[in-house]
Amino acid sequence: MKVLSIAIPCYNSEEYMKYAIESLLPGGEEVEILIVNDGSVDCTAEIADAYANKYPSIVKAIHQENGGHGQAVNTGIQNATGQYFKVVDSDDWVDIRAYLKVLDALRDLNRYGKQVDMFISNFVYEKEGTKYNKIMKYDTVLPQNVIFTWDDIKEFPRGQYLLMHSVIYRTQLLLDCKLELPKHTFYVDNLYVYKPLQHVEKIYYMDIDLYRYNIGREDQSVQEDIMIKRIDQQIKVNKLMIEHVELQSIQNKKLRHYMLRHLEIVTIVSSILLIRSGIEENLKKKEELWKYIKNKDSNLYRRMRYGVMGGLISLPGRTGRSISVGAYKLSQKLVGFN
Hints:
This protein has 338 residues and is of the alpha/beta class. Helices cover 45% and strands 17% of the residues.
């Protein structure tokens, strides 16, 4: 069995996918690289096939009708044969030295029969136009280089969250928890990193900057103007996070608290984007989102609505909305997220 399967969802990725693939090839025979061509109409399919032909024991090209990023990840999970699974987007890459150290650690865990459910490492925001890149580190909240459980973690400060870029899951755990991301939907990475957490027991963290998250391209889905245009998809994922995880049923208090915080920031982002649009219809959608949460889980509603950020986005009138946006912009600068 391969140690690690890595899925690369690709849609019209001919301009940058080679860099992602080349950064992963040094993993050698212990790694399985699954290039998932999601119905591209450029040369993505040809590039994927060329790598599969050149490295037949490492690279597999999978072609499917366009289903979106989530469906490409689903396809990767379904075809993975490695013990562990990671997603690397086609416009991102990994630091090769860190990558080899992560593979060494996974290999050592196997050697001593100490399987983990989730392996965590740092990631770097490679943001265009900035002089210094922010690193999302977890060294202040997670034990390092040992197997631990949720009981051993410290409280995550606001602005510090586990994202798709920071996690490697045990493949069978993803299959067992029946993770299936929705088709033709952006922002599903939030659901990918959120739903499986309730099934994670054993964790391992290396304080190493593995993943390089390329951010800042004008056509990128996380650009604010594009997110506003696709706000219905953000709301859809937001609701799925609530539907797929019953927070009150999670016994571990630290895990439950972390997942509440994570859900809170996703909901705040949804709300602020709706406010930022300045469209009356979207302001109604914001109220509808919070009404949905209240009807779904009144306790969850109270904890999020009457928290610091929840209170800020609930301020009435145009002045209140301006204050909400101002607080959001300040948090962007302090935290460093897009």
